[in-house]
Specification:
By secondary structure, the chain is α/β, with parallel strands linked by helices. It folds into two domains: 139 residues, Rossmann fold; 148 residues, Aspartate/ornithine carbamoyltransferase (Rossmann fold). The chain is built from twelve helices and nine strands. A five-stranded parallel sheet has the order 7-6-5-8-9. A four-stranded parallel sheet has the order 2-1-3-4, with helices on both faces. α1 packs across α5, α2 crosses α12 and α5 packs across α12. The structure holds phosphoric acid mono(formamide)ester and norvaline.
């Protein structure tokens, strides 16, 4: 693995398998009450520009369970908000911390920070990608389905940061991924093109039923991501046929699982009935963020 985890496009299949195995081992250890203090005396910084419940908390608990500490840094309270250069901030933080996770808008900001930082930098969500979420979601897929090979994975809705990270994962792991997105809200073509050169059976369609047909995994996310709040009403109109509901789930395999990274908007992108129904694995997804974040910290901090 590289020094940083900025995008899944930088990881290959074996890198991801290492993380899945490490996360499962750490989960088993935690459940049996056995600690792995691999971050003893070490500090994780969390620099966040956007809201978070799950990612912030699971990274904080991950550092604590590994014997380290975490320090939450709201970017607006730092000197960056008063124009201290990113590269200076990255070098300052590198003198105090052992690893930093950043949630921000721009992927370019994250890359500039990582370039100047001496410590590992983790993408905790940008407008472009949400790599840690997709790694933990794949851990949930492995647990529920016994692996990821031969599965048909569907993505319904926006061609957003989550969709982009699923595309990158599909390319590295040779997954069959069909994304149904409305015209004008397709995934970034450059990400699709570069994934197509690597592997996987990745297809973008406009018909949600085509994506859901015989799927083993049905995945969705909010229609308006953080930073797009002003587009909420317009997006609700465009995306209304892409809702994950019982009618759509009837097209998937009977034992298909339904995934959502949360927070969910009930009865918008997913019905309350499906979210609360027997096929939903959203609470396991939430828990697995903790175990995957421990694996990521363990691998990046200790190798
Ligand atoms: N899924 C996820 O990233 O949730 P938060 O925005 O609460 O961190
Ligand atoms: N696509 C969503 C994911 C939230 C975890 C967003 O960026 O707001």
């Amino acid at each position: 693995m590289n020094k940083d985890l900025l995008t899944l496009a930088a990881l290959d299949g074996p890198d991801m398998d290492t993380l899945f195995e490490r996360a499962q081992a750490l989960k088993d250890r935690q459940k049996s009450g056995e600690a792995r203090p691999s971050m003893l005396g070490k500090s994780l910084g969390l620099v966040f520009d956007k809201h978070s419940t799950r990612t912030r908390l699971s990274f904080e608990v991950a550092a604590i369970q590994l014997g380290g500490v975490s320090i939450f840094i709201s970017s607006k309270d730092t000197q960056m908000a008063r124009n201290e250069p990113v590269k200076d901030t990255a070098r300052v933080l590198s003198r105090y911390l052992d690893v930093v996770a950043i949630r921000t808008y721009s992927q370019a900001f994250l890359e500039e920070f990582a370039e100047a930082a001496d410590i590992p930098v983790i993408n905790a969500l940008t407008d472009m990608y949400h790599p840690c979420q997709v790694l933990s979601d794949l851990l949930t897929v492995i647990e529920k389905k016994g692996g990821y090979k031969e599965l048909k994975i569907a993505w319904l809705g926006d061609g957003n940061n989550m969709a982009h990270s699923w595309i990158n994962a599909a390319a590295a792991l040779d997954l069959t991924l069909t994304l149904a997105c409305p015209e004008g809200y397709l995934p970034d073509d450059r990400i699709l093109q570069s994934a197509a050169k690597k592997g996987g059976q990745i297809k973008v369609v406009q018909d949600p039923y085509e994506a859901a047909k015989d799927a083993d995994v049905v995945n969705t996310d909010v229609w308006a991501s953080m930073g797009q709040e002003s587009e909420q009403a317009q997006r609700e109109a465009v995306f209304k046929d892409f809702q994950v509901n019982q009618e759509l789930m009837a097209k998937a395999k009977p034992d298909a699982i339904v995934m959502h990274c949360l927070p969910a908007h009930r009865d918008e992108e997913i019905t309350d009935e499906v979210l609360e129904g027997p096929q939903s694995v959203v609470w396991d997804q939430t828990e697995n963020k903790l175990h995957m974040h421990k694996a990521i910290l363990d691998v990046l901090v200790n190798g």
